[in-house]
């Protein structure tokens, strides 16, 4: 099959135009880079992500060491402490940089940066822009700066579906146009690639993540042989509103203001589960809600005593979601369920953002930097995306690359695109039901086998990539026979010191586990059923 080739002059290619990708392109200027964006720049729907707040130790009495200590405490013993300290130390500098780009963070009455507190932070260190508009303001400032930077060559309307390597080093990418389903792939030679493709929430049927957070970026690195770290650790937001895809987040701040979790009988099911009741850590609340849902009692956030006529002003995202669901939260409890929210795992990178593949760097949610361990604290995702994007640029400033030779059509190996549809739905349902908040050995083993089949048999490159990432998550969850941080195994409910280290795995290792599980004899049915 013939495929078009895009001529380049040996520029660095950045894949993904979210916070990490935009920021990396800017930090590299004036060095020429190509920035691949799935949509026209700035037009992508980041959905509710745009509410995102950012953490930085900038208030009086707070310190980078204290910020790092909070990461280490939350991470279930798996946080790389040096990485956490370095991230916290770089935070203030990134905030200053954003302000120079025109982001106007909220101010306190004395003119200093206004800070608020969030769960798992021991100090007030969450910064926002007009309350709810932080993420939106940051992306808008980055997009404007990118558009004004001549060294950044934009390629809009493309997604990457294969990372091309030769002898363990990056050679380029295979891209597809997003506006033409059956378009032939395009090859692009590149000596260095920065993956900044975001998270994996869309692998789950219940997720708060936008469509593009589909794990394909992680998969293309894994399929090229990159080491993947901690894939089993997925944070589930406990209170996502049910019935919509993506599921809108019902913010913790509502519970902070006095809204309560109840089941259909009006019972406050978190009372016996944790001293902090509804404000317990996210994992604990997610498990409490799952227990009610599994028992058929339902789970609701009753915010009737908290919300009044100004709901649209105070909680615009929730208000819009309730209108879409035909629900009045000032009169009715809001149905909630846990939903995949943030991936602690990703492409294993060092402090410079380098992966295990020569010529491949990763930043943002697709990367695993070691700062999250088994759990993640609020406001650190955007921070980490900005900090690591900048570190990659610094690292790349010391690298020069020869013009890379053109790629041969033989580099292209994928069969024609097939239709996604049911395969993707099946994958997402398996992930939510068997690799979700509550996991156990048998469910995970079944999931691994089914996902491996999808990965092997699918003709659709997107679905195959999604299945590769799902396989890494499910096999790592199967292998970790303990509960730690966000990873909860009902069959192994306690932490086990044997597993007190980060997972470092590859797709080849995941496939081996899948093969072993597929070869295991089917469980013997009880006599009564086998008759
Ligand atoms: C509802 C919600 C609320 C959140 N709240 C917070 C918060 O308060 N604070 C916080 O710090 N974090 C928060 N997060 C997490 C945070 O928003 C993300 O971790 C962060 O945006 C990730 O940035 P990124 O640049 O890595 O990826 P993204 O911003 O997701 O950008 C990824 C980009 O890559 C593109 N892409 C993906 N795959 C490909 C491909 N194969 N080829 C080409 N392009 C591709 C996408 O189209 C997109 O442009 C929240 C997330 C959600 C969903």
How would you summarize what this structure contains?
By secondary structure, the chain is α/β, with parallel strands linked by helices.
Task: Write up what this structure looks like.
The chain is α/β, with parallel strands linked by helices and 531 residues long. 34% of the residues lie in helices and 15% in strands. The chain has 3 domains: 4-233 and 341-397, FAD/NAD(P)-binding domain, CATH 3.50.50; 240-338, Succinate dehydrogenase/fumarate reductase flavoprotein, catalytic domain (Flavocytochrome C3, Chain A, domain 1); 422-519, Fumarate reductase/succinate dehydrogenase flavoprotein-like, C-terminal domain (Methane Monooxygenase Hydroxylase, Chain G, domain 1), CATH 1.20.58.100. The chain contains 15 helices and 19 strands. A 5-stranded parallel beta sheet has the order 6-3-2-10-17, sandwiched between helices. The chain has a 4-stranded mixed beta sheet with strand order 1-9-8-7. The chain has a 4-stranded mixed beta sheet with strand order 18-16-11-19. Strand 7 and strand 8 form a beta hairpin. Helix 3 crosses helix 10, helix 11 runs antiparallel to helix 12 and helix 12 crosses helix 14 (507-519). The model has no long low-confidence stretch (mean pLDDT 91). Residues 15-21, 36, 38, 44, 48-49, 51-54, 159-160, 196-199, 208-209, 212-213, 216-217, 249, 342, 364-366, 378-382, 385 line the site of flavin-adenine dinucleotide.
């Amino acid at each position: 099959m013939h495929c078009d080739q895009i001529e380049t002059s040996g520029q660095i290619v950045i894949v993904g135009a979210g916070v990490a990708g935009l920021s990396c392109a800017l930090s590299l200027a004036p060095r020429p880079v190509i920035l691949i964006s799935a949509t026209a720049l700035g037009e992508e729907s980041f959905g509710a992500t745009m509410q995102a707040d950012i953490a930085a130790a900038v208030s009086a009495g707070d310190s980078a060491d204290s910020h790092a200590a909070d990461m280490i405490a939350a991470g279930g013993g798996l946080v790389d402490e040096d990485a956490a300290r370095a991230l916290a130390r770089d935070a203030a500098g990134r905030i200053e940089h954003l302000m120079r780009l025109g982001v106007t963070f909220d101010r306190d009455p004395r003119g200093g940066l206004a800070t608020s507190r969030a769960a798992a932070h021991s100090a007030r260190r969450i910064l926002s822009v007009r309350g709810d508009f932080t993420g939106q303001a940051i992306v808008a400032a980055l997009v404007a700066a990118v558009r004004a930077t001549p060294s950044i060559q934009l390629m809009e309307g493309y997604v990457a579906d294969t990372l091309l390597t030769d002898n363990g080093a990056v050679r380029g990418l295979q891209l597809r146009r997003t506006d033409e389903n059956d378009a032939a792939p395009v090859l692009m030679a590149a000596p260095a690639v920065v993956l900044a493709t975001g998270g994996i929430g869309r692998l789950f049927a219940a997720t708060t993540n936008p469509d593009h957070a589909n794990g394909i970026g992680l998969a293309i690195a894994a399929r090229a042989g990159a080491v993947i770290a901690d894939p089993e650790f997925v944070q589930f937001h406990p209170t996502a509103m049910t019935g919509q895809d993506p599921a809108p987040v019902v913010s913790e701040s509502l519970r902070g203001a006095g809204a309560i979790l109840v089941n259909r009988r009006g019972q406050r099911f978190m009372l016996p589960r944790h001293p902090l009741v509804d404000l317990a850590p996210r994992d604990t609340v997610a498990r409490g809600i799952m227990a009610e849902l599994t028992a058929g009692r339902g789970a609701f956030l009753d915010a009737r005593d908290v919300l009044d006529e100004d709901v649209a002003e105070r909680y615009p995202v929730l208000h819009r979601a309730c209108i879409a669901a035909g629900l009045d939260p000032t009169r009715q409890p809001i149905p909630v369920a846990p939903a995949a929210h943030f991936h602690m795992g990703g492409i294993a990178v060092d402090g410079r953002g380098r992966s295990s593949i020569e010529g491949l760097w990763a930043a943002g949610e697709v990367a695993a930097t070691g700062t999250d361990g088994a759990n993640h604290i609020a406001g650190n995702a955007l921070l980490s995306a900005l900090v690591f994007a900048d570190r990659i640029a610094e690292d790349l400033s010391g690298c020069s690359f020869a013009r890379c030779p053109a790629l041969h059509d033989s580099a292209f190996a994928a069969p024609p695109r097939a239709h996604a549809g049911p395969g993707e739905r099946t994958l997402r349902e398996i992930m939510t039901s068997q690799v979700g908040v509550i996991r156990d050995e048998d469910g995970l083993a079944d999931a691994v086998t089914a996902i491996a089949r999808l990965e092997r048999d699918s003709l659709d490159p997107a679905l195959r990539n999604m299945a590769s990432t799902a396989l890494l998550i499910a096999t790592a969850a199967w292998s970790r026979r303990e509960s730690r941080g966000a990873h909860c195994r009902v069959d192994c409910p306690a932490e086990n010191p044997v597993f007190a280290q980060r997972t470092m795995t590859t797709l080849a290792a995941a496939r081996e586990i899948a093969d072993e599980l597929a070869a295991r004899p089917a469980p013997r049915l009880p006599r009564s059923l086998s008759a």
